[in-house]
Each structure stands twice: as structure tokens, then as C-alpha cells.
Design a protein that fits this description.
The chain is mainly β. The protein is built from one helix and seven strands; from the N terminus they run αβββββββ. The strands form two sheets. Strands 4-5-6-7 form a four-stranded antiparallel beta sheet, with no helix packed on it. Strand 1 and strand 2 form a beta hairpin.
Length: 87
Amino acid sequence: MAEGTPTPRKVTAAATQQDALPMRGMVLLGTFMNDKAPEALIRDPHGRIEKIGLGDKVGRQQVVAINPGLVVLMRNGATERLTMPRG
């Protein structure tokens, strides 16, 4: 935005949602479908943002599926599904 041009209050309010993301645990921020292989962007439990792909390790879990808005992780035969936050 150009310097000196204030953002209208209505725009700021619409672009900012309180508590849109959980503060704890792993959060799916986005998925990217491309011709080579799907990827996803997550925030790990320590607050780090990571780009992940199929087969990658996230902590002790392995990424076994990435679909639009969904990542499936597996550890010792148990699965965890990460979905996009509602907003």
C-alpha cells in the first residue's frame, strides 16, 4: 500500500478475524495442488511454518495424503486429519 494512504477501518475489520487459528497444536494453513506433487503449508506445535509434501515427516508423523484443504498424517498405523480452519 502506498505510504500515506490509510487503510479504511471497514477493510481492516473485514481482513482481521479474532481467534481464526487455534493457538495450540498443528494447523493446516493451505494446500497447493500442482502437476508434480501436492504440497501443504502447516504451522507446527512450536509455531514454525513448514512446507510439506507426501512422505515428509512432521514430528513423528508421516504425510500420507494431501488433498485440497486436507492433510493426512500417520504414526504407528493411526491417522490424524488436518483440515483448513473455518473462517
